[in-house]
Specification:
alpha/beta, Purple Acid Phosphatase, chain A, domain 2, 3 domains, eleven-stranded mixed beta sheet, 13 helices, 18 strands, binds 2'-deoxyadenosine-5'-monophosphate, binds fe (iii) ion, binds zinc ion, nucleotidyltransferase, Metallo-depent_PP-like, DNA binding
Amino acid sequence: MLANAEIVRRFLELKHQVHPEVVSYIREQNDPTLIDRMAAAAAGTLVVSAEHIPGLKKVRDGTRFLVDPELEVIMGSAGTTGSVSGHEDAVHYFRNRYNCLSSMIRSRMTTMPIEALLKSPHRYRDEECSIIGMVADVRTTAKGHRLVEVEDPTGAIRVLFNKGRDESFAEAERILPDEVLGVKGKLSSDGGLFFAEHLFRPDVPINNAPFKSDRPGKAVLISDVHVGSDTFLDEAWNRFADWLQDSDAAYLLIAGDLVDGIGIYPGQDNELTIKNIYEQYDVFAGMLRDLPSRIRIVAAPGNHDVVRMAEPQPAIPPEFTAKFPENCTLVENPCLLNLQGVRVLMYHGRSIDDMIGLIPGASYERPGEIMDEMLKRRLLAAPYGMRTPIAAMKTDRLVIDPLPEILLTGHVHICGITRYRGVLGLNAGTWQAQTAFQKQMNIHPTPARAFVVDLQTLQPEVIDFS
Ligand code: D5M
Ligand code: FE
Ligand code: ZN
């Protein structure tokens, strides 16, 4: 198998730099002839990128239109999430996650059931083979290697990522509980351990081609309004509302934490200007009513809203939204929207807290990197049972499938932009100034900013109302 460094070196000899995603593609294909063919295709350009991969056509997945909707809720319309129940649903839930994500990996590699390795270890010893498993446990050994227990529906095996294997080890350090991985490697001579050589994630296909609307349309994307908090920035919001009056935006998406809520954290009472939850939603409703009625508004809940914490979170129920304007659609968290054919996956982003704690080098200052990690794993939230409560249902709504053109998150109150294999990731900041708690945690919000995305070009713009 070709190593990353070897691939890069051979391109350099041919006077080319090479994009990292091309390196991982060639490594996965394990076809050295690709290097010369691609270098030839890229003659005259310095950097070899995915567009030079022979025979690789940009593809879009799935049908865009049954009819020709302006706004369609593809997944997560109000009332679609079920109640949380028992142990059996957790089994269904993880099986569904495994099935969805393993099939994404299996389309790129030939794998065998873990059971086959366990049953005839002598047969597979010293032979390179591949498995796909969900991470049941992951830890760093005393010697600094990564030891991962992976499970498929047939069995479980311990996988060792040696810290000396530089390239796969950096990824191994980022393995999260309950993500699904493909691993290529060799069985130990006693059959008790699998030595990993390479790690594969479900990932976004390298030839993913985002859909662009064929007619004009702009969407404004925000999050974390926190109405009712004494740090809610009403003047900045008013400037935003004035700006919307004159803008040509057709959609306004709000990714949760619409209000500050009641009893969300200890001592919150002292930081509320509106201490009644109904009143908080009524004031928020009034703010939406003041926006142009031509704008289609979509609002989802976050962890400060009145619905259950466990994700998927239901839409805000009607008893709180009686005063909301008719142009506002209430949806669940997460939800998948279709705006003129452009798909937006909107997720509040609670799992970002968990991922920042688990991924070496991750920071609240750079939420875009976390969105890349979500896309690589094709999961909005990987670990089960940490700070992000997950409602185990028959299907895993936190799997990213189908791929959206835009992934919108919030929660961390810091703006971030990323573009990962054609998917635009936006973390939309907040309308709340730094709270005492955030000051204590050394979190520096970037408040009062809105993203505007042109649906014809998928180019984002940030507008600052602070
Ligand atoms: O979250 C706003 C920001 O504050 C987000 O970055 C997470 C952080 N936060 C919120 N609660 C906690 C706790 N309990 N521990 C650590 N960090 C936290 P919001 O959902 O708006 O409160
Ligand atoms: Fe928030
Ligand atoms: Zn939040």
